[in-house]
Specification:
With 246 residues, the chain is of the alpha/beta class. Helix content is 31%, strand content 20%.
Length: 246
């Protein structure tokens, strides 16, 4: 079940999503020593992450963070690196107890998947912060996504629309600069989270939102984010533009 919340602007949307996220984390910390969360990246997450860092009453030093995906071969200091993005927008502001970054430039991506798979398999994620790509992807699981694979992190090929989106968002100067492979959290691992908060603003996402979240469209790997409809605790935050085709 997906609870859909629509707001006039993405700033108001981001604040509302941050309030919900903070509540989930605070509640988790009431009943256990640490709270575990997953963080997405991209322009769609900026307002949300900014608002989240201003939420009060969260003992961030009792939290552990994983992130969704990272380009293979990209160093951590590259302008488009998701590690750089997360350090600047959340990690170096709230200082979680522990951050498990994906090392996209690790010499052996297969071994890097095994390393982080071992870490995340030991915990239960309290909340995953995610978005929906222009092609309907979740993390970097481009269509047709693999809904069955159980490994938490996998190596994926990035399709043309996904790579074009990265250029459109100005993370890269040209399509030739965008890596063709990434390490991505799998669909099944995303669904393993107790709660999922999906933040997806902007008109360019409207078609993907309709294809993935409309009640009259079946769950299909062609629209990977449609799988969210099978999870019992999904809270989706849209602005009026991304929700315009619903």
């Amino acid at each position: 079940m997906v609870e859909i919340n629509i707001f006039e602007t993405k700033e108001v949307m981001g604040k509302a999503a941050a309030i919900k996220a903070a509540k989930i984390i605070r509640n988790a910390l009431k009943i256990k020593k640490k709270a575990y969360f997953i963080t997405a990246t991209g322009t769609s997450q900026i307002e949300f992450l900014n608002a989240l860092t201003y939420q009060r009453g969260i003992e961030w030093d009792r939290t552990v963070m994983f992130h969704l995906d990272e380009y293979i071969g990209l160093p951590a200091d590259h302008p488009a690196s998701f590690r750089k993005y997360l350090k600047e927008r959340i990690v170096d502001i709230i200082y979680p107890n522990k951050v498990h970054f994906i090392k996209g430039d690790a010499p052996d991506p297969i071994m890097e998947c095994k390393r982080i798979n071992k870490l995340i398999s030991k915990v239960k994620i309290d909340v995953a912060f995610i978005g929906i790509g222009e092609n309907g992807h979740l993390a970097f699981n481009d269509p047709p996504a693999d809904f069955r694979i159980k490994d938490p992190y996998i190596i994926v090929d990035l399709d043309q629309q996904c790579r074009n989106q990265q250029v459109g968002e100005r993370w890269f100067r040209s399509i030739e600069d965008v890596p063709k492979k990434a390490i991505s959290m799998s669909i099944q691992e995303i669904l393993r989270a107790k709660n999922i908060i999906c933040i997806c603003p902007d008109e360019r996402k409207a078609e993907a939102v309709r294809n993935c979240l409309s009640d009259d469209i079946k769950v299909t790997s062609t629209y990977p984010a449609s799988i969210l409809k099978t999870h019992k605790n999904v809270f989706c935050y849209l602005d009026k533009f991304s929700a315009s085709l619903l």
